[in-house]
Amino acid sequence: MATAVVDATYKIHRALGPGLIESVYEKCLIHELGKRHFEVRYQFDLPVAYDDIVIDSGLRPDLLIADVLIVEVKSSRANASSLSGATYDLPQANEKEVGSSH
Fold first, then answer.
1. Domain count across the chain
2. Is residue 60 in some structural domain?
3. Residue 99: pLDDT band by 50, 70, 90 thresholds?
4. How far apart are CA 58 and CA 46, in angstroms?
5. Measured between alpha carbons, how far is 56 from 38 in angstroms, rounded to an integer?
6. Is position 29 within any domain?
């Protein structure tokens, strides 16, 4: 899955180049991952489950792919990198239902 995300980001980088705002790259990445048949949720509140409670954590990931991988999209003009990001595994603290998809 992570390989597919990296491949999609390179494809977007080659097509669009550097300098656009993050939301443009994010929408393109959602499109590319959808073409690869991944379920993608984006910009939603991600609660945290602890003990027998669910905490409104204030977490709002850019993308959640297949309910497993969180991707934060970053763009930068300073180093001419059009699309970079961080990926995170969905923490165990969120094993309960995380909400509806967009």
1. 1
2. yes
3. very low
4. 7
5. 26
6. yes
CA distance 39 to 10: 20
Domain span holding position 28: 2-92
Reported as a single tens digit per residue, the pLDDT across 6-29 is 999 999 999 999 889 999 999 999
Q: Quick one: angle between helices 2-16 and 22-35, nearest 10? A: 120
In a domain, 97, yes or no: no
Q: CA-CA distances (angstroms) from residue 96 to 5, 56, 58, 62, 66?
A: 24, 13, 16, 19, 14
